[in-house]
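Morning run. Coffee first, then this:
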Amino acid sequence: MKDLTKGFPAKIIFIYTIPIILGNILQQIYNFTDSKIVSMYVSTDALAAVGNTSVISGLVIGFIIGLTQGYTILVARSFGAKNMGDVRRYVGGTFVLSSVFGIVMMALSIIFTRQILTVLNTPEEIMDISVSYLIIILAGSPFVIVYNACSNVLRAVGDSRRPLYFLILSLVVNIGLDILFVGPLNMGTDGAAYATIAAQFVCAVCCLIYMIIKTKELFPKDKDEWIPGKKECSKLLPLGFSMAMMSSIVNIGTVILQWAINSLGTVYVTAHIAARRIFTILMCCIYSFGFSITNYVSQNMGAGEFGRVRKGILHGNLIVTGITVVLCAICHAWGDELVVWIVSDPNAIDIIQPATDYIKIGVVFYYALGPLFILRCALQGMGLKTVPIITSILECLTKVVFAFGLVPSMGYFGIILTEPISWCIMTAVLTAAYLVTARKGIENIRV
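And here it is:
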Protein backbone atom coordinates (compact mmCIF):
# COMPACT_ATOMS: atom_id res chain seq x y z
CA MET A 1 0.00 0.00 0.00
CA LYS A 2 1.19 3.52 -0.79
CA ASP A 3 0.10 6.95 0.40
CA LEU A 4 -0.38 9.20 -2.67
CA THR A 5 -0.94 12.30 -0.52
CA LYS A 6 2.77 12.97 0.03
CA GLY A 7 5.69 13.74 -2.29
CA PHE A 8 6.14 15.69 -5.54
CA PRO A 9 2.96 15.03 -7.58
CA ALA A 10 4.59 14.41 -10.99
CA LYS A 11 7.06 11.90 -9.52
CA ILE A 12 4.41 10.13 -7.45
CA ILE A 13 1.99 9.89 -10.38
CA PHE A 14 4.65 8.73 -12.84
CA ILE A 15 6.11 6.02 -10.57
CA TYR A 16 2.64 4.84 -9.54
CA THR A 17 1.55 4.64 -13.20
CA ILE A 18 4.53 2.68 -14.58
CA PRO A 19 3.21 -0.75 -13.41
CA ILE A 20 -0.24 0.13 -14.78
CA ILE A 21 1.26 1.07 -18.15
CA LEU A 22 3.31 -2.12 -18.23
CA GLY A 23 0.24 -4.19 -17.35
CA ASN A 24 -1.85 -2.56 -20.07
CA ILE A 25 0.95 -2.89 -22.62
CA LEU A 26 1.41 -6.56 -21.75
CA GLN A 27 -2.33 -7.10 -22.16
CA GLN A 28 -2.25 -5.44 -25.56
CA ILE A 29 0.89 -7.37 -26.54
CA TYR A 30 -1.07 -10.51 -25.75
CA ASN A 31 -3.89 -9.29 -28.04
CA PHE A 32 -1.19 -8.47 -30.58
CA THR A 33 0.28 -11.98 -30.27
CA ASP A 34 -3.18 -13.56 -30.25
CA SER A 35 -3.93 -11.91 -33.59
CA LYS A 36 -0.59 -13.09 -34.94
CA ILE A 37 -1.19 -16.69 -33.84
CA VAL A 38 -4.71 -16.74 -35.27
CA SER A 39 -3.61 -15.22 -38.58
CA MET A 40 -0.69 -17.68 -38.85
CA TYR A 41 -2.45 -20.90 -37.90
CA VAL A 42 -6.00 -20.24 -39.11
CA SER A 43 -6.75 -17.49 -41.67
CA THR A 44 -7.24 -13.77 -42.22
CA ASP A 45 -11.00 -14.40 -41.92
CA ALA A 46 -10.35 -15.79 -38.44
CA LEU A 47 -8.33 -12.66 -37.63
CA ALA A 48 -11.24 -10.52 -38.82
CA ALA A 49 -13.68 -12.55 -36.71
CA VAL A 50 -11.61 -12.21 -33.52
CA GLY A 51 -11.15 -8.48 -34.04
CA ASN A 52 -14.77 -7.94 -35.00
CA THR A 53 -15.94 -9.31 -31.63
CA SER A 54 -13.51 -7.21 -29.61
CA VAL A 55 -15.83 -4.19 -29.60
CA ILE A 56 -18.57 -6.28 -27.95
CA SER A 57 -16.33 -7.98 -25.40
CA GLY A 58 -14.71 -4.59 -24.81
CA LEU A 59 -18.13 -3.11 -24.08
CA VAL A 60 -19.00 -5.81 -21.51
CA ILE A 61 -15.57 -5.94 -19.91
CA GLY A 62 -15.30 -2.15 -19.99
CA PHE A 63 -18.58 -1.94 -18.06
CA ILE A 64 -17.24 -4.38 -15.44
CA ILE A 65 -13.94 -2.53 -15.10
CA GLY A 66 -15.78 0.78 -14.90
CA LEU A 67 -17.98 -0.51 -12.06
CA THR A 68 -15.00 -1.60 -9.96
CA GLN A 69 -13.08 1.61 -10.69
CA GLY A 70 -16.06 3.72 -9.69
CA TYR A 71 -16.66 1.78 -6.48
CA THR A 72 -13.00 1.96 -5.46
CA ILE A 73 -12.99 5.77 -5.69
CA LEU A 74 -14.53 5.60 -2.21
CA VAL A 75 -11.94 3.04 -1.12
CA ALA A 76 -9.17 5.45 -2.15
CA ARG A 77 -10.88 8.42 -0.51
CA SER A 78 -11.37 6.52 2.76
CA PHE A 79 -7.76 5.31 2.66
CA GLY A 80 -6.58 8.90 2.15
CA ALA A 81 -8.66 9.92 5.19
CA LYS A 82 -7.11 6.98 7.16
CA ASN A 83 -10.57 5.53 7.87
CA MET A 84 -10.02 1.77 7.60
CA GLY A 85 -13.54 0.91 8.75
CA ASP A 86 -14.98 2.67 5.70
CA VAL A 87 -12.27 1.10 3.51
CA ARG A 88 -13.47 -2.40 4.50
CA ARG A 89 -17.14 -1.54 3.98
CA TYR A 90 -16.47 -0.12 0.52
CA VAL A 91 -14.27 -3.10 -0.41
CA GLY A 92 -17.13 -5.44 0.54
CA GLY A 93 -19.55 -3.35 -1.49
CA THR A 94 -17.18 -3.37 -4.47
CA PHE A 95 -17.05 -7.18 -4.59
CA VAL A 96 -20.77 -7.76 -4.04
CA LEU A 97 -22.15 -5.09 -6.38
CA SER A 98 -19.59 -5.74 -9.15
CA SER A 99 -20.46 -9.43 -9.13
CA VAL A 100 -24.23 -8.90 -9.30
CA PHE A 101 -24.29 -6.36 -12.11
CA GLY A 102 -21.37 -7.86 -14.03
CA ILE A 103 -22.93 -11.34 -14.18
CA VAL A 104 -26.31 -9.95 -15.29
CA MET A 105 -24.68 -8.05 -18.14
CA MET A 106 -22.63 -11.10 -19.13
CA ALA A 107 -25.74 -13.29 -19.30
CA LEU A 108 -27.68 -10.82 -21.43
CA SER A 109 -24.73 -10.42 -23.80
CA ILE A 110 -24.39 -14.20 -24.30
CA ILE A 111 -28.13 -14.59 -24.98
CA PHE A 112 -28.15 -11.90 -27.66
CA THR A 113 -24.69 -12.46 -29.18
CA ARG A 114 -25.81 -13.39 -32.70
CA GLN A 115 -28.40 -10.62 -32.82
CA ILE A 116 -25.83 -8.02 -31.76
CA LEU A 117 -23.32 -9.18 -34.38
CA THR A 118 -26.07 -9.15 -37.02
CA VAL A 119 -26.96 -5.56 -36.14
CA LEU A 120 -23.27 -4.69 -36.52
CA ASN A 121 -23.36 -5.88 -40.16
CA THR A 122 -20.86 -8.64 -39.43
CA PRO A 123 -19.89 -10.18 -42.80
CA GLU A 124 -21.61 -13.56 -43.30
CA GLU A 125 -18.34 -15.37 -43.96
CA ILE A 126 -17.11 -14.65 -40.41
CA MET A 127 -20.46 -14.71 -38.55
CA ASP A 128 -20.35 -18.27 -37.13
CA ILE A 129 -16.70 -17.94 -36.07
CA SER A 130 -17.46 -14.59 -34.40
CA VAL A 131 -20.48 -15.93 -32.48
CA SER A 132 -18.64 -18.99 -31.14
CA TYR A 133 -15.55 -17.00 -30.12
CA LEU A 134 -17.53 -14.24 -28.41
CA ILE A 135 -19.75 -16.57 -26.35
CA ILE A 136 -16.68 -18.33 -24.93
CA ILE A 137 -14.97 -15.01 -24.10
CA LEU A 138 -18.09 -13.64 -22.38
CA ALA A 139 -18.46 -16.84 -20.34
CA GLY A 140 -15.15 -15.97 -18.68
CA SER A 141 -16.49 -12.63 -17.38
CA PRO A 142 -16.79 -13.81 -13.72
CA PHE A 143 -13.01 -14.23 -13.62
CA VAL A 144 -12.61 -10.72 -15.05
CA ILE A 145 -14.90 -9.41 -12.29
CA VAL A 146 -12.82 -11.00 -9.51
CA TYR A 147 -9.47 -9.88 -10.92
CA ASN A 148 -10.57 -6.30 -11.56
CA ALA A 149 -12.25 -5.97 -8.17
CA CYS A 150 -9.02 -7.14 -6.49
CA SER A 151 -6.65 -5.13 -8.67
CA ASN A 152 -8.66 -1.90 -8.42
CA VAL A 153 -8.88 -2.20 -4.63
CA LEU A 154 -5.10 -2.66 -4.48
CA ARG A 155 -4.54 0.33 -6.78
CA ALA A 156 -6.94 2.43 -4.72
CA VAL A 157 -4.66 1.97 -1.70
CA GLY A 158 -1.57 2.78 -3.75
CA ASP A 159 -0.38 -0.71 -4.74
CA SER A 160 -0.05 -0.76 -8.52
CA ARG A 161 2.68 -3.44 -8.65
CA ARG A 162 0.90 -6.61 -7.45
CA PRO A 163 -1.81 -6.47 -10.12
CA LEU A 164 1.01 -6.30 -12.68
CA TYR A 165 2.67 -9.44 -11.30
CA PHE A 166 -0.54 -11.46 -11.52
CA LEU A 167 -1.21 -10.14 -15.01
CA ILE A 168 2.26 -11.25 -16.15
CA LEU A 169 1.51 -14.76 -14.88
CA SER A 170 -1.83 -14.69 -16.69
CA LEU A 171 -0.25 -13.59 -19.97
CA VAL A 172 2.38 -16.33 -19.85
CA VAL A 173 -0.36 -18.92 -19.35
CA ASN A 174 -2.49 -17.27 -22.04
CA ILE A 175 0.16 -17.22 -24.74
CA GLY A 176 1.33 -20.77 -23.93
CA LEU A 177 -2.20 -22.17 -24.15
CA ASP A 178 -2.91 -20.05 -27.23
CA ILE A 179 -0.06 -21.63 -29.14
CA LEU A 180 -1.04 -25.11 -27.93
CA PHE A 181 -4.78 -24.84 -28.61
CA VAL A 182 -4.63 -22.98 -31.92
CA GLY A 183 -1.52 -24.72 -33.25
CA PRO A 184 -0.95 -28.43 -32.44
CA LEU A 185 -4.50 -29.07 -31.16
CA ASN A 186 -6.01 -27.25 -34.15
CA MET A 187 -8.90 -25.76 -32.14
CA GLY A 188 -9.08 -22.61 -34.27
CA THR A 189 -10.44 -19.37 -32.86
CA ASP A 190 -12.32 -21.27 -30.13
CA GLY A 191 -8.95 -22.46 -28.86
CA ALA A 192 -7.78 -18.84 -28.55
CA ALA A 193 -10.93 -18.05 -26.56
CA TYR A 194 -10.48 -21.02 -24.21
CA ALA A 195 -6.85 -20.00 -23.64
CA THR A 196 -8.01 -16.52 -22.65
CA ILE A 197 -10.56 -17.61 -20.04
CA ALA A 198 -8.16 -20.21 -18.57
CA ALA A 199 -5.58 -17.47 -18.07
CA GLN A 200 -8.21 -15.14 -16.58
CA PHE A 201 -9.10 -17.85 -14.07
CA VAL A 202 -5.46 -18.22 -12.98
CA CYS A 203 -5.07 -14.46 -12.62
CA ALA A 204 -8.28 -14.02 -10.61
CA VAL A 205 -7.53 -16.87 -8.18
CA CYS A 206 -3.94 -15.74 -7.54
CA CYS A 207 -4.94 -12.12 -6.97
CA LEU A 208 -7.73 -13.09 -4.58
CA ILE A 209 -5.49 -15.45 -2.58
CA TYR A 210 -2.86 -12.73 -2.26
CA MET A 211 -5.39 -10.24 -0.91
CA ILE A 212 -6.82 -12.73 1.59
CA ILE A 213 -3.37 -13.61 2.94
CA LYS A 214 -1.43 -10.33 2.67
CA THR A 215 -3.97 -7.52 2.97
CA LYS A 216 -6.33 -8.74 5.68
CA GLU A 217 -6.86 -5.19 6.94
CA LEU A 218 -8.66 -4.34 3.67
CA PHE A 219 -11.12 -7.23 3.84
CA PRO A 220 -14.46 -6.95 5.69
CA LYS A 221 -14.32 -8.58 9.10
CA ASP A 222 -18.00 -9.45 9.51
CA LYS A 223 -21.26 -9.80 7.61
CA ASP A 224 -22.25 -6.16 8.13
CA GLU A 225 -19.10 -5.01 6.32
CA TRP A 226 -19.61 -7.50 3.46
CA ILE A 227 -23.22 -6.59 2.70
CA PRO A 228 -23.49 -2.94 1.65
CA GLY A 229 -26.23 -1.06 3.48
CA LYS A 230 -28.38 1.79 2.22
CA LYS A 231 -25.73 4.37 3.12
CA GLU A 232 -22.94 2.53 1.27
CA CYS A 233 -25.12 1.75 -1.76
CA SER A 234 -26.23 5.38 -2.04
CA LYS A 235 -22.58 6.35 -2.49
CA LEU A 236 -21.20 3.32 -4.31
CA LEU A 237 -23.89 2.89 -6.97
CA PRO A 238 -23.80 6.43 -8.43
CA LEU A 239 -19.99 6.39 -8.70
CA GLY A 240 -19.84 2.82 -10.02
CA PHE A 241 -22.51 3.35 -12.64
CA SER A 242 -21.09 6.73 -13.55
CA MET A 243 -17.69 5.22 -14.35
CA ALA A 244 -19.23 2.13 -15.97
CA MET A 245 -21.59 4.19 -18.10
CA MET A 246 -18.75 6.49 -19.06
CA SER A 247 -16.79 3.51 -20.32
CA SER A 248 -19.82 1.83 -21.90
CA ILE A 249 -21.13 4.90 -23.68
CA VAL A 250 -17.74 5.56 -25.24
CA ASN A 251 -17.54 1.88 -26.24
CA ILE A 252 -21.04 2.04 -27.72
CA GLY A 253 -19.73 4.76 -29.99
CA THR A 254 -16.90 2.41 -30.93
CA VAL A 255 -19.42 -0.38 -31.61
CA ILE A 256 -21.33 1.91 -33.97
CA LEU A 257 -18.05 2.83 -35.60
CA GLN A 258 -17.42 -0.90 -36.08
CA TRP A 259 -20.81 -1.11 -37.81
CA ALA A 260 -19.65 1.52 -40.28
CA ILE A 261 -16.37 -0.34 -40.83
CA ASN A 262 -18.16 -3.65 -41.39
CA SER A 263 -20.21 -2.03 -44.14
CA LEU A 264 -16.95 -1.43 -46.04
CA GLY A 265 -16.18 -5.18 -46.28
CA THR A 266 -13.78 -7.75 -44.84
CA VAL A 267 -10.63 -6.09 -46.25
CA TYR A 268 -11.23 -2.91 -44.26
CA VAL A 269 -12.36 -4.89 -41.20
CA THR A 270 -9.00 -6.68 -41.26
CA ALA A 271 -7.08 -3.44 -41.88
CA HIS A 272 -8.81 -1.75 -38.97
CA ILE A 273 -8.15 -4.67 -36.64
CA ALA A 274 -4.44 -4.63 -37.51
CA ALA A 275 -4.28 -0.86 -36.96
CA ARG A 276 -6.17 -0.98 -33.66
CA ARG A 277 -3.90 -3.70 -32.27
CA ILE A 278 -0.97 -1.29 -32.61
CA PHE A 279 -2.97 1.84 -31.82
CA THR A 280 -4.29 0.45 -28.53
CA ILE A 281 -0.81 -0.49 -27.32
CA LEU A 282 0.28 3.10 -27.86
CA MET A 283 -2.94 4.48 -26.38
CA CYS A 284 -2.52 2.60 -23.11
CA CYS A 285 0.57 4.74 -22.41
CA ILE A 286 -1.88 7.64 -22.26
CA TYR A 287 -5.03 6.28 -20.65
CA SER A 288 -3.09 4.55 -17.86
CA PHE A 289 -2.41 8.00 -16.43
CA GLY A 290 -6.14 8.62 -16.36
CA PHE A 291 -6.61 5.57 -14.11
CA SER A 292 -3.79 6.82 -11.88
CA ILE A 293 -5.22 10.31 -11.65
CA THR A 294 -8.54 8.88 -10.42
CA ASN A 295 -6.87 7.26 -7.39
CA TYR A 296 -4.42 10.12 -6.85
CA VAL A 297 -7.24 12.67 -6.78
CA SER A 298 -9.46 10.43 -4.62
CA GLN A 299 -6.81 9.88 -1.93
CA ASN A 300 -5.93 13.57 -1.82
CA MET A 301 -9.58 14.61 -1.67
CA GLY A 302 -10.01 12.25 1.30
CA ALA A 303 -6.95 13.77 2.99
CA GLY A 304 -8.13 17.34 2.32
CA GLU A 305 -5.06 18.07 0.15
CA PHE A 306 -6.89 20.18 -2.43
CA GLY A 307 -3.79 22.05 -3.58
CA ARG A 308 -2.17 18.72 -4.43
CA VAL A 309 -5.26 17.79 -6.45
CA ARG A 310 -4.78 20.85 -8.68
CA LYS A 311 -1.04 20.25 -9.03
CA GLY A 312 -1.55 16.57 -9.83
CA ILE A 313 -3.96 17.36 -12.66
CA LEU A 314 -1.52 19.90 -14.13
CA HIS A 315 1.42 17.51 -13.84
CA GLY A 316 -0.63 14.68 -15.35
CA ASN A 317 -1.41 16.78 -18.41
CA LEU A 318 2.25 17.71 -18.84
CA ILE A 319 3.31 14.06 -18.59
CA VAL A 320 0.84 12.78 -21.23
CA THR A 321 1.82 15.59 -23.59
CA GLY A 322 5.48 14.59 -23.34
CA ILE A 323 4.61 10.93 -23.94
CA THR A 324 2.61 11.89 -27.04
CA VAL A 325 5.73 13.43 -28.58
CA VAL A 326 7.53 10.09 -28.22
CA LEU A 327 4.59 8.05 -29.54
CA CYS A 328 4.24 10.23 -32.64
CA ALA A 329 7.91 9.66 -33.43
CA ILE A 330 7.57 5.89 -33.00
CA CYS A 331 4.44 5.66 -35.15
CA HIS A 332 5.79 7.67 -38.04
CA ALA A 333 9.12 5.84 -37.99
CA TRP A 334 7.94 2.22 -37.70
CA GLY A 335 4.19 2.19 -38.32
CA ASP A 336 4.47 0.36 -41.66
CA GLU A 337 6.67 -2.40 -40.25
CA LEU A 338 4.33 -3.03 -37.31
CA VAL A 339 1.30 -3.37 -39.57
CA VAL A 340 3.15 -5.81 -41.85
CA TRP A 341 4.10 -7.90 -38.81
CA ILE A 342 0.48 -8.10 -37.66
CA VAL A 343 -0.96 -8.88 -41.09
CA SER A 344 1.74 -11.54 -41.82
CA ASP A 345 1.56 -10.76 -45.54
CA PRO A 346 3.81 -7.95 -46.88
CA ASN A 347 2.00 -8.10 -50.22
CA ALA A 348 -1.44 -7.32 -48.78
CA ILE A 349 -1.21 -3.63 -49.73
CA ASP A 350 -5.00 -3.21 -49.70
CA ILE A 351 -4.87 -4.00 -45.95
CA ILE A 352 -1.51 -2.46 -45.02
CA GLN A 353 -2.05 1.00 -46.53
CA PRO A 354 -5.31 1.97 -44.77
CA ALA A 355 -4.05 0.49 -41.49
CA THR A 356 -0.87 2.56 -41.69
CA ASP A 357 -2.82 5.72 -42.53
CA TYR A 358 -5.04 5.13 -39.49
CA ILE A 359 -2.05 4.90 -37.15
CA LYS A 360 -0.02 7.82 -38.48
CA ILE A 361 -2.93 10.26 -38.58
CA GLY A 362 -4.63 9.15 -35.37
CA VAL A 363 -1.57 9.30 -33.12
CA VAL A 364 -1.15 13.03 -33.77
CA PHE A 365 -4.47 13.60 -32.01
CA TYR A 366 -3.15 12.03 -28.81
CA TYR A 367 -2.35 15.64 -27.91
CA ALA A 368 -6.11 16.00 -27.36
CA LEU A 369 -6.72 12.44 -26.11
CA GLY A 370 -4.26 12.70 -23.19
CA PRO A 371 -5.93 15.72 -21.52
CA LEU A 372 -9.32 14.11 -22.23
CA PHE A 373 -8.40 11.08 -20.08
CA ILE A 374 -6.73 13.16 -17.36
CA LEU A 375 -9.59 15.63 -16.95
CA ARG A 376 -12.42 13.13 -17.20
CA CYS A 377 -10.84 10.77 -14.65
CA ALA A 378 -9.87 13.65 -12.36
CA LEU A 379 -13.49 14.81 -12.23
CA GLN A 380 -14.53 11.24 -11.41
CA GLY A 381 -11.90 11.10 -8.67
CA MET A 382 -13.36 14.27 -7.17
CA GLY A 383 -16.70 12.48 -6.94
CA LEU A 384 -18.35 14.43 -9.78
CA LYS A 385 -20.55 12.24 -11.95
CA THR A 386 -22.63 14.40 -14.27
CA VAL A 387 -19.97 16.04 -16.44
CA PRO A 388 -18.01 12.81 -17.19
CA ILE A 389 -21.22 11.03 -18.21
CA ILE A 390 -22.44 13.96 -20.33
CA THR A 391 -19.12 14.18 -22.14
CA SER A 392 -19.14 10.42 -22.69
CA ILE A 393 -22.59 10.69 -24.25
CA LEU A 394 -21.42 13.57 -26.41
CA GLU A 395 -18.36 11.58 -27.47
CA CYS A 396 -20.60 8.68 -28.47
CA LEU A 397 -22.93 10.98 -30.40
CA THR A 398 -20.09 12.69 -32.25
CA LYS A 399 -18.74 9.30 -33.30
CA VAL A 400 -22.17 8.37 -34.64
CA VAL A 401 -22.68 11.68 -36.45
CA PHE A 402 -19.28 11.74 -38.08
CA ALA A 403 -19.28 8.00 -38.89
CA PHE A 404 -22.59 8.35 -40.73
CA GLY A 405 -21.60 11.71 -42.19
CA LEU A 406 -18.07 10.97 -43.39
CA VAL A 407 -17.93 7.26 -44.26
CA PRO A 408 -20.44 7.32 -47.17
CA SER A 409 -18.44 9.98 -49.01
CA MET A 410 -14.89 9.37 -47.73
CA GLY A 411 -14.85 5.61 -47.08
CA TYR A 412 -12.25 4.39 -44.59
CA PHE A 413 -10.63 7.84 -44.42
CA GLY A 414 -13.87 8.98 -42.74
CA ILE A 415 -13.29 6.29 -40.10
CA ILE A 416 -9.76 7.59 -39.56
CA LEU A 417 -11.05 11.12 -38.85
CA THR A 418 -14.10 10.27 -36.74
CA GLU A 419 -12.48 9.51 -33.36
CA PRO A 420 -9.90 12.35 -33.49
CA ILE A 421 -12.67 14.88 -34.14
CA SER A 422 -14.62 13.59 -31.12
CA TRP A 423 -11.49 13.73 -28.93
CA CYS A 424 -10.86 17.39 -29.75
CA ILE A 425 -14.45 18.38 -29.01
CA MET A 426 -14.55 16.47 -25.71
CA THR A 427 -11.22 17.86 -24.51
CA ALA A 428 -12.49 21.41 -25.05
CA VAL A 429 -15.69 20.64 -23.10
CA LEU A 430 -13.83 18.93 -20.23
CA THR A 431 -11.28 21.74 -19.98
CA ALA A 432 -14.08 24.26 -19.59
CA ALA A 433 -15.83 22.04 -17.00
CA TYR A 434 -12.65 21.64 -14.94
CA LEU A 435 -11.89 25.37 -14.97
CA VAL A 436 -15.42 26.14 -13.74
CA THR A 437 -15.08 23.49 -11.00
CA ALA A 438 -11.68 24.83 -9.91
CA ARG A 439 -13.01 28.38 -9.81
CA LYS A 440 -15.93 27.37 -7.58
CA GLY A 441 -13.53 25.53 -5.27
CA ILE A 442 -12.59 21.84 -5.32
CA GLU A 443 -12.79 21.84 -1.52
CA ASN A 444 -16.55 22.45 -1.73
CA ILE A 445 -17.27 19.16 -3.55
CA ARG A 446 -19.13 16.56 -1.51
CA VAL A 447 -19.72 12.90 -2.43
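Residues 9-444 form one domain. Good start to the day.
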